[in-house]
Amino acid sequence: MVAVTAVSSPEPLKPDDVPLDGKQTFAWPMDPESKTVRNGSRLNKVLLLRLDPEGFDPQTKAHAAEGVVAYSAVCVHTGCDVTNWDPNRQLLECPCHYSTYDPKDGAKVISGPAPRRLPALPLRMADGQLLVAKPFTGRAGFQQM
Q1: What CATH fold (topology level) applies to the domain 3-132?
Q2: How far is Cα 21 from Cα 92, in angstroms, rounded to an integer?
Q3: What is the arithmetic mean of pLDDT over 106-118?
């Protein structure tokens, strides 16, 4: 069992810890028993968003837990952190080369040079906490050409 913990706190996150329609929360996977945070590689860093699941495509709904979705925080273009959030359009953006991703449609690339979507980290709920359900849906990070 692997929980998700905020970058700033070693406690497992609950859906209410992620602001509804707010800026992404950066997190790391964590073993809730040993409290070992898997922050040894920046490729483990995830971003969490809590959105209205009614707007999710079916695949995104399957990976979400109570409206919370998790994606790799590392842009697939050149490896920058995806830190920008456009609340009006509800889109994620990488500040380095402006690849834009739709978190309600599996982090599909909307614009920019990114060659593929951000990998999702499927979540599930247990004891009120957000837990990792399965590994990333794709390779985190970027590939040099």
Answers
A1: Rieske Iron-sulfur Protein (2.102.10)
A2: 12
A3: 97
